[in-house]
């Protein structure tokens, strides 16, 4: 019987929490199968890409990713090489000799994992035969007109063929194959139907039917047990896809999902309770300087301020030092991503700020890609006017500085009435006149193709947020992903996030939620919900999430109007914070990043792998009857220092950002708080092995 060394994980209180076997990775081969390997479509790409380094460190050359071949991705992301593993090399050669095109190489990301990529189009001539194989395996037929499902069948059939060739030449090594989402599921179904000696895991990141139902504005979570699943899937013409997904779930030795909320959904939609919840993480990089992320926030905030100066030229009657930048980003799913409730809350926030005569201004960015013609001319003009004013100010400053310098050299105090000549004054007056505009600053940066029916623009018209002078909330829709090469807002997404004050993601359907997780890692507070996997995860791990900059809106047990009021109060409370309170909160938010590190969350995947081995090969692997990974001993306490929740110790109306409270200084000790948090998250063991000769970098494994 093959057994690894048993590691008992102990909480801070000394009570054992769970036991995990250290896998004998030298006797195993691990394959992860996903349509998004080297192929960015959605969040699964981020999961696999960020997890690759931790997994590759642990498994070394016995870890492989399987995905589809696309020529552009291959040329830009993959370095071709020959397989070192004999079983994999023989499998690739065999398939290439039998009319397939299989590419092998290293994916040029952190960890440089091996990838096996199948050319789907090259093998499409087998489609009809493979449709017959799927029908014989699980009685699921695929319509000829569903090209995506047909491509997934080809991909799955090639995967099953490849795994058969690998197991035929594995020389006693046991194979684990993890399949992500229904797109990879046919490979799992066919592998089990052919009784291949592999241990299988199926991971759903979001159920297929759940996404469709939520997009239809159905009260999804309160009616989970009432849906006629077959009828709902059939009406949406995805019944065959749903059957592929459900068959994959029930064929797998171990079924996992990414969050507790998705586990509840999967149990009702797919009729199987997940064996393990495997939360999504990120490859967290720590700065050697503790407050470097605060410096980055200041630097990128200044660049956003430059954009705002141009966008609101002629209407820049608000103080940028008292302006907060909020944003929402992601796929353009108006209801699922919570853009509907966010806009309604912004309308109510605007009313509160105006009623209290606040000097705080809120600029909100919607970064959601939609169909556009091109940049809005008025928006481009604003940036041109800003640059022209900057150039004029710079040239006048140079002349002023030279005259001042010459006067001081002569030992004279310059005559301030004559230091600027008439031409300089004329140039400045013309510059002032050029900033006058007859229209309001635009609410969108691009020309929208469906302007009249666009959900965001239609809602903006209804609630009347037109960026007028009296509005304390300004709205900017940027219907395109951010890029450092953009002539309008030349910033990468990460730079933009670091420059903002708050990310707002009040999603109704969000199985995990990478956007608030990315904000947390960068030390930016965020709003999430208890219907997102991330929100549920933080509620479980943090005693007072708000104090750590994680605002969790209750969208599960409250009405839509109550949830909107709660979101409004969160936003209004954030606007009332002083500059120091925001700095304290950002420090706390950034400390939560250890919770989201794959070196911490990888334990859940390790548990799933050992569980599937014990089920697939019970005579060779044995798992003690212990509970799955739990984190009861790893919970961030409520901060003892003041303010426990920065909005809780404030006056009834917003105050100036530069207000400082000496008493607050005395009661807040950041070093003590940080040390206490480090102790609460510090893991008593390391999941990954560091290869011989490779040193840990400073801060690299600081959990």
Automatic annotation (TrEMBL):
Q: Which PANTHER family match?
A: GLYCOGEN [STARCH] SYNTHASE, LIVER (PTHR10176:SF1), GLYCOGEN SYNTHASE (PTHR10176)
Q: Enumerate the InterPro entries for this protein.
A: Glycogen_synth (IPR008631)
Judging by the UniProt lineage, the source's domain of life is Eukaryota
State what protein this is by name: Glycogen [starch] synthase
Known EC number(s)? 2.4.1.11
Q: Can you name the source organism? A: Neomonachus schauinslandi (Hawaiian monk seal)
> GO biological process: what's one of them?
glycogen biosynthetic process
The pathway is: Glycan biosynthesis; glycogen biosynthesis
EC class of the enzyme, as a word: transferase
Coiled-coil-forming residues are none
Task: State the GO CC annotations.
Answer: cytoplasm
Keyword Transferase among UniProt keywords: yes
């Amino acid at each position: 019987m093959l057994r690894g060394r048993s590691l008992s994980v102990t909480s801070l209180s000394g009570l054992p929490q769970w036991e995990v076997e250290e896998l004998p990775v030298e006797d195993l081969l691990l394959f992860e199968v996903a349509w998004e390997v080297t192929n960015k479509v959605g969040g699964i790409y981020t999961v696999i890409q960020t997890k690759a380094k931790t997994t590759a460190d642990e498994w070394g050359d016995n870890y492989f990713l399987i995905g589809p071949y696309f020529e552009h991705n291959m040329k830009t992301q993959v370095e071709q090489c020959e397989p070192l593993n004999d079983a994999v090399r023989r499998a690739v050669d065999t398939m290439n000799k039998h009319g397939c095109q299989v590419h092998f190489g290293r994916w040029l990301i952190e960890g440089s994992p091996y990838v096996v990529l199948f050319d789907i189009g090259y093998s499409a001539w087998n489609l009809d035969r493979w449709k017959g194989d799927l029908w014989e395996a699980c009685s699921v037929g695929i319509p000829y007109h569903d090209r995506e499902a047909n491509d997934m069948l080809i991909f799955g059939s090639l995967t099953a063929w490849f795994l058969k060739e690998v197991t035929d030449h594995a020389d006693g090594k046991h194979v684990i194959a993890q399949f992500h989402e229904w797109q990879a599921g046919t490979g799992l179904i066919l592998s089990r139907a052919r009784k291949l000696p592999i241990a299988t895991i199926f991971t759903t990141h979001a159920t297929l039917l759940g996404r469709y139902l939520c997009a239809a504005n159905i009260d999804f979570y309160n009616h989970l047990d009432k849906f006629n699943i077959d009828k709902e899937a059939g009406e949406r013409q995805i019944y065959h896809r749903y059957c592929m997904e459900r068959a994959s779930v029930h064929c797998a030795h171990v079924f996992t999902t990414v969050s507790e909320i998705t586990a509840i959904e999967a149990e009702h939609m797919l009729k199987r309770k997940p064996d393990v919840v495997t939360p999504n993480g990120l490859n967290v990089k720590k700065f050697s300087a503790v407050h470097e992320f605060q410096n980055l926030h200041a630097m990128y905030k200044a660049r956003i301020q430059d954009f705002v100066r141009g966008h609101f030229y002629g209407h820049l009657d608000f103080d940028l030092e008292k302006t907060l930048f909020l944003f929402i980003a992601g796929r353009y799913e108006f209801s699922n991503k919570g853009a509907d409730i966010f806009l309604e809350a912004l309308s109510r926030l605007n009313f509160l700020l105006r009623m209290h005569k606040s000097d705080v201004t809120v600029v909100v960015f919607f970064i959601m890609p939609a169909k556009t013609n091109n940049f809005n001319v008025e928006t481009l003009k604003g940036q041109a006017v800003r640059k022209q004013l900057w150039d004029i100010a710079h040239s006048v400053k140079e002349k002023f500085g030279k005259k001042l310098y010459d006067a001081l050299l002569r030992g004279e105090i310059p005559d301030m009435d004559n230091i600027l000549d008439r031409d300089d004054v004329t140039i400045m007056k013309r510059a002032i006149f050029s900033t006058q505009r007859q229209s309001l600053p635009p609410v969108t940066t691009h020309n929208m193709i469906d302007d009249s029916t666009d959900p965001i623009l239609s809602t903006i018209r209804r609630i009347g947020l037109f960026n007028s002078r009296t509005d304390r909330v300004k709205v900017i829709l940027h219907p395109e992903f951010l890029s450092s090469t953009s002539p309008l807002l030349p910033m990468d997404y990460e730079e933009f996030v670091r420059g903002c004050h708050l990310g707002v993601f009040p999603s109704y359907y969000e199985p995990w939620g990478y956007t608030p997780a990315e904000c947390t890692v960068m030390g930016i507070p965020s709003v999430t919900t208890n219907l997102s996997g991330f929100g549920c995860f933080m509620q479980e791990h943090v005693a007072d999430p708000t104090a750590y900059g994680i605002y969790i809106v209750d969208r599960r047990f409250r009405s839509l109007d109550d949830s909107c009021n709660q979101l409004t109060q969160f936003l209004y409370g954030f606007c009332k914070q002083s500059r120091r309170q925001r700095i304290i909160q950002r420090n706390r938010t950034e400390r939560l990043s250890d919770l989201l590190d794959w070196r911490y969350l990888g334990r859940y995947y390790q548990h799933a792998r050992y569980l599937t081995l014990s089920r697939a090969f019970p005579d060779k692997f044995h798992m003690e009857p212990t509970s799955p990974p739990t984190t009861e001993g790893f919970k961030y306490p409520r901060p003892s220092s003041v303010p426990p929740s920065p909005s809780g110790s404030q006056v009834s109306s917003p105050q100036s950002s530069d207000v400082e409270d000496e008493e607050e200084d005395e009661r807040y000790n950041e070093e003590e708080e940080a040390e206490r948090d480090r102790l609460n998250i510090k893991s008593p063991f390391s999941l990954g092995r560091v290869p011989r000769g490779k040193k840990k970098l400073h801060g690299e494994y600081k959990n």
